[in-house]
Amino acid sequence: MSMKYPPMWRVSSFRSSPRPSVGEVRGPASISQLLAWMADDLEANSVTRWRFSARFRNTTVLYLRLLRINEYLLNMSGFWPRVARFYFRYRLTRHSIFTGITIPPRTFGRGLCLPHFGTIIVNAKTRAGDWCTVHCGVNIGVADGGVPKLGDGVYIGPGAVLYGGISIGDLVAVGANSVVNRDAPSRTTIAGAPAREISAVSSHSLISAAGQAALRAHDGSEACP
User: Fold this and answer.
1) How many CB atoms lie within 10 A of CB 146?
2) In what order do the strands lie in the sheet with 195-199?
3) How many CA atoms lie within 13 A of 131 on its CB side?
4) What is the phi/psi pair of residue 168, to 5°?
5) Is residue 209 predicted with pLDDT exceeding 90?
6) Cα(33)–Cα(76) distance, rounded to whole angstroms?
7) Which pLDDT tens digit goes with each residue over 21-64?
8) Which SS3 state, helix, strand or coil, does residue 139 take?
9) In whole angstroms, what is the distance from residue 91 CA to residue 173 CA?
10) Phi and psi dihedrals of 48, rounded to 5?
11) In the predicted model, is pLDDT for residue 71 greater than 50?
12) What is the pTM assigned to this prediction?
């Protein structure tokens, strides 16, 4: 599915759209929102334009596009959307096997960055905000019936494990190979096994420039977090 995006469907569209709270039903609910979410995913992954050949070079972005289409179809009703859901769910599952990525629909907000393909496992009940970054080897799972909730701009380094009913604040950086089983306040860096706060430095510099601008616009501040 190859599409071109007008500039209005990039960061500007994110700034003007309502911002759902973590835990709400997620995903685009219209074609214009679908195109906007796809454009934000491109921005987050430093892809300027989607071309047919890009599906062979940017396998993680192709996964994200299939994910967004599935989310859009889940918000639609009727016979043909149900047929389309079956087809695109099959395509997403097939690409999941190819890339090793298992991120169910309605778990992450827009502007998701997946720097590398490789094993990524996310529980279907996970709820995460916008402009997050997830590296390979990450596992976000359940413990004692609880699953993590992540804020906006969360950066998760390679090999990190997050589990249980924990809350990770906005702009938190999770170090590589960390084991996170407790809450983390916003704008901090955590690392270790078990993870603990090691710095008051946020993930601001680790997310895309588009994500930085969009989050600043929603916060109503031009200062770096």
Assistant:
1) 13
2) 133-134, 155-156, 173-174, 189-192, 195-199
3) 28
4) -105, 120
5) no
6) 13
7) 445 547 899 999 999 999 999 999 989 888 877 777 889 999 99
8) strand
9) 32
10) -75, -30
11) yes
12) 0.84
